[in-house]
Amino acid sequence: MDLFDKLEGRPSPLGPFTSEGYGYYTFPKLEGPLGPEMKFNNKDMVVWSINDYLGIGSNPEIKKVDTEATEKYSLSAPMGARLMTGNSNEHEKLEEELAAFVHKEKAQLLNYGYQGIMSTIHALVDRNDILIYDELSHACIVDGKQLAMAEKYVFKHNDIESFKKQLFRAKKKMGENTSILVVTEGVFGMTGDLGILKEIIELKKEVPFRLLVDDAHGIGTMGKDGSGTGTHLGVQDGIDIYFGTFAKSFALIGAFIASEPRVIEFLKANSRSQVFAKSLPLPMVVTARKRLQMIKDNPQWREQLWNNTLKLREGLREIGYTVLPSESPVTPVLTKGSTDLCQDIMRKLREEHGVFVSGVAYPVVPRGTVLIRLIPTAAHNDVHIEKTLKAFEAIKDYVFEAAEKLSA
Ligand SMILES: Cc1ncc(COP(=O)(O)O)c(C=O)c1O
Questions:
Q1: 303 and 270 in a common domain
Q2: What CA–CA distance (Å, rounded) separates 352 from 344?
Q3: Which of 268, 297, 326 is the last residue of a domain?
Q4: Which domain holds residue 137?
Q5: pTM of the model
Q6: What is the pLDDT of residues 28-61, one digit of tens each?
Q7: Distance between CA 185 and CA 165 in Å, rounded?
Q8: Ligand 1 binding pocket mutation candidate from 51, 52, 245 (most atoms within 8 A of CB)
Q9: For ligand 1, is residue 316 a contact (CB within 6 Å)?
């Protein structure tokens, strides 16, 4: 059979979400300056779906640096991979600053977090090793695991007994040349709960292993200084390899890994998606340095983010919604319902109330449940929150009746 003909019959995991909802439920176009107020289909929206946690996407001081750096270097430079001709002082300075920010010795810049973490996992373990990971890990960890030659064990999400079971299973299998790599997340992006880092790290005393933490949603938002979930939980030292992306709090593209110098040196030469791909353009690196400096200089942004998060969450709970007990700014509203209800909620909020949220249904969450995920940012204000709470109040009878029907 022709490969392209076969593709037509192959279902998308999101089903009608992608086929019928193109441009609306999937691939929507949010227009206008990045922020909590944007246009969707020419209508004004309060937006709760972008991960610009610290509200810096439209910061004029940053935009000025973006423009000046592009003018100075062009978007083309440098050409080539870091290892060949794509290195610069700016790349190296950014690495030093990132390492210091997350309290590690050395860092490696990554072009994109997704490919970067995949290659990191791939490079770190070989066929003698064992990789243990949380079942709800982000797709980039799952794909990194697919590439890895190691034996793979999975533990139930944030379940320390399940983790322990896999760890001791690994211990039994240990040969002279076997090492163990554990991978989990700082903040789980859909549900907002934190990885059980403290409990996991505690078990190093019983079975030695190295821990890689994907803190994509934690960097900038968690910890007193914004250095992430490890700092927030007081266990940053127990994280052997820290991963952060610029895709969220930095409102940019790019990412990094931070660890001991010998690990970073190894990864710089062996991380295939970095060795064989063009390095980040200089303006991106210059603006990443500026953004990092501004994140360090403006702790009030994080404070504002948390104030907004708590206000929004309390308000939703007062109306009667179930907000999952997230420990990060990610605000997940859970209800019983079908894919149709998920789409109805998004549509009603957008069309009748000018509130833009994103939701997921089966297979992203268990069948019969709908998860509406709101991402508060430091740029939201009380007017945005009140408007949104009013909208949720207005649709609640419809949502709760649909949930009741499903329970009956
Ligand atoms: C948990 C997690 N890890 C990794 C990534 C990938 O990062 P990037 O967007 O830099 O490729 C994302 C999404 O951005 C994410 O949410």
A1: no
A2: 11
A3: 297
A4: 60-297
A5: 0.96
A6: 999 999 999 999 999 999 999 999 999 999 999 9
A7: 19
A8: 245
A9: no
